[in-house]
Amino acid sequence: MPRPYQEYLQEILIDEATLQKRIAELGQQISRDYAGKTDLLLICILKGGVLFLTDLMRHIDIPHHIDFMAVSSYGAQARQSSGAVRIEMDLHTDIANRHLLIVEDIIDSGHTLSYILRTLEARQPADVKICTLLSKRERREIDIKVDYIGFEIPNKFVFGYGLDLDEYYRNLPFIGVVRAEAYATKSEDA
Ligand code: IMP
Ligand code: MG
User: Fold this and answer.
1) Pocket of ligand 1 contains residue 106 by CB under 6 Å
2) Percent with pLDDT over 90 in the chain
3) Do 175 and 163 touch, CB atoms closer than 8 A?
4) Nearest ligand to the C-alpha of residue 139?
5) What domains can you pick out in the chain, each with its CATH number?
6) Closest atom of ligand 1 relative to the 109 alpha carbon
7) Quick one: DSSP state of residue 74?
8) 108 classed as catalytic
9) Res. 112: pLDDT tops 70
């Protein structure tokens, strides 16, 4: 059984009210920016983007579709993206000539999104934009243009609100900073 999340929580970085307020703003901004377009497709990157997508779309008041894509980085340690990315689950939608908005939980090095962008652009959509809830700018190794950013955060490992620790705690309604000692000890157990 997983331990109570409190054992891994150093501090709450972004509380529920702050998250929800910002997500509402992003939804309103996206609605304005895409006004008049009827072929918007929100592409949620699984699994971390799920909570963000479902809250964000409630604030997007123009017609749109949603679809899902799962990717994994392999050959990498759990906390680092190697740049080698694989599609685990592809879209079910033909994206040619569609306006795509990628909905992602967090951009760290940028490798994952850079790969996703290249893959999607090869299918000739009308355009592709990126909406990420969190960004660790100082960790960026690939410079990608991010159109919508919920929060810039410091270089700390975070969990909750879609982001997991060993697949747990994605349900937490806030973003928390992981207590390094607690998580390191736990990894050695595994
Ligand atoms: P990137 O390819 O380095 O930009 O990594 C992006 C992916 O790494 C995200 O989609 C997350 O799955 C994961 N990731 C990066 N930082 C964190 C974090 O602080 N907590 C949880 N997952 C993270
Ligand atoms: Mg992710």
Assistant:
1) yes
2) 85
3) yes
4) 1
5) 16-155 (3.40.50.2020)
6) 3
7) -
8) yes
9) yes
